[in-house]
Amino acid sequence: MMGVRGAITIEKNNSKYILKATEKLIEEILQQNKIDNSEIVSIIFTATKELDKVYPARAVRNMGYTDIPLMCYQEMNVNNSLKYCIRAMIYINRDCNRKDINHIYLEKAKSLRPDLIKEED
């Protein structure tokens, strides 16, 4: 089993923004890692305290993933931490090396793991 991380930020606390950003993040994680639905064990989401209009998991349900266990939590509130941030951890059944996993950080969330950001051509 492997864990694939990702995060994205949005501009304001709005259901539409939360759902759209979550869908974008999950689609990018799945695409960049060539993850098939049958490989997904579960997905855990966290959101910073400013985001309380809708559960990020609803975006995944809207995408048609109705048989995957999903959980949403509030992110730990740390002073001076990144605001309006949705984080995801996708657990997959795959036998591979950790270096073969592409963790995805979008928008201002790129600042969370600059060591993982690949330079664009």
Topology:
Blueprint: E1 2-9, H1 15-32, E2 40-47, H2 57-62, E3 70-74, E4 85-92, E5 104-105
Parallel strand pairs: 1-5, 2-3
Antiparallel strand pairs: 1-4, 2-4
Question: Could you please describe the fold and organization of this structure?
Answer:
The chain contains two helices and five strands. It has helices at 15-32, 57-62; strands at residues 2-9, 40-47, 70-74, 85-92, 104-105. The protein has a single domain (2-114), classed as RutC-like (60s Ribosomal Protein L30, Chain: A), CATH 3.30.1330.40. Helix content is 20%, strand content 26%. Helix 2 links the parallel strand 2 (40-47) and strand 3. The protein is globular, with a radius of gyration of 14 Å. It is α/β, with parallel strands linked by helices and 121 residues long. The N and C termini lie far apart (32 Å). The protein has a five-stranded mixed beta sheet, with helices on one face.
Mean of all residue-level pLDDT scores = 95
Radius of gyration: 14 Å
Q: Any guess at the CATH architecture?
A: 2-Layer Sandwich
Q: Sketch the topology as an H/E string, one letter per element.
A: EHEHEEE
CATH homology superfamily name: RutC-like
Strand order of the largest sheet: 3-2-4-1-5
| Secondary-structure class | alpha/beta
Largest sheet features: 5 strands, mixed
CATH topology assignment: 60s Ribosomal Protein L30, Chain: A
Query: Which stretches of 5+ consecutive residues score pLDDT under 50?
Result: none
Cα distance, first to last residue? 32 Å
- Range of helix content: 10-25%
By DSSP (H or I, 4+ residues per run), the number of helices equals: 2
Tell me the number of structural domains: 1
